[in-house]
Structures are given as C-alpha cells and as structure tokens.
Amino acid sequence: MQRFMMKSKIHRAIVTDANLNYQGSITIDKNLMELADILPNEKVQVLNINNGARFDTYAIEGERGSGTICINGAAARLCQVGDIIIIISYAIMDDEEAKNYKPKVIFVDENNKPVNM
C-alpha cells in the first residue's frame, strides 16, 4: 500500500508579499526551501492561520536569506502581508518507509529565519 505522508513543513512563516498579477505559486526563501527539502516547482499546501484558508500551489525559489514568503497569482486573494501560514510538502511512501519516516519541521522567527525548537 502507498500512503500520502507529510514530508516537511515550514511552520508559522509570515507572508511578506502578495502579488496578484503573477502567474501563480508561492515564492519561498531558497534557504528555507533547502531546509524543508522542497524543490522548485514542487506542489505544496498552504494553510493560513489568520483566516483558515487552505490551498495548493507550487514553490519557486526566492532570494537566499531574504525571508521572502510571497503568495502569487489568484492565491494572493487568500493571504495578506503579515498573515501567518504553514507550508507543507508531501511524499508518497510505502508502508514500511512511512512507519519510519521523520518529517522535517522548520520553525521560523518573525523574520522568517530558521530557529531551533
């Protein structure tokens, strides 16, 4: 059996920009993408803690170390600058892999810089 499991998440990131006129996606600081093992164009789910919105999109790299979290395209209607979000990536795993897999959880501070928890 195959299972759809959480691979990683960036927890409580703060939206730094929203660009309605971009084609789509979420721009994420390249450093955070690497820490969370999220590749460019990988599908991610975004959960907005402020308003309860949830949506799927794909990740694109932002400038390394910038703290950028920018919601692009139509999804910009679902988030505002300053909103707190969770960005989740998933992977398909067989039962044995899923039982032993430990997802990467990246906590960030108010500037979207990684912190140890």
Describe the protein's architecture and organization.
The protein has helices spanning 30-35, 95-100; strands at 2-14, 17-19, 25-29, 43-48, 54-62, 69-72, 84-94, 104-108, 114-115. Helices cover 10% and strands 50% of the residues. The longest helix is centred in the N-terminal third of the chain and has 6 residues, at 30-35. The mean pLDDT is 96. The protein is globular, with a radius of gyration of 14 Å. It has a 9-stranded mixed β-sheet. It is mainly beta and 117 residues long. Strand 4 (43-48) and strand 5 form a beta hairpin. The protein contains 2 helices and 9 strands. It has one domain (2-108): Barwin-like endoglucanases (Beta Barrel).
What's the short story on this structure?
The protein is mainly β and 117 residues long.
CATH class: Mainly Beta
Order of helices and strands: EEEHEEEEHEE
Number of domains: 1
Instruction: Quickly give the CATH architecture.
Output: Beta Barrel
Strand content range: over 45%
Main β sheet profile:
9 strands, mixed
Low-confidence stretches: none
**Could you name the CATH topology?**
Barwin-like endoglucanases
Mean model confidence by pLDDT: 96
Count of strand segments? 9
Keywords for this entry:
117 residues, 50% strand, 9-stranded mixed β-sheet, mainly beta, Barwin-like endoglucanases, globular, lyase, Aspartate 1-decarboxylase, single chain, 10% helix, decarboxylase
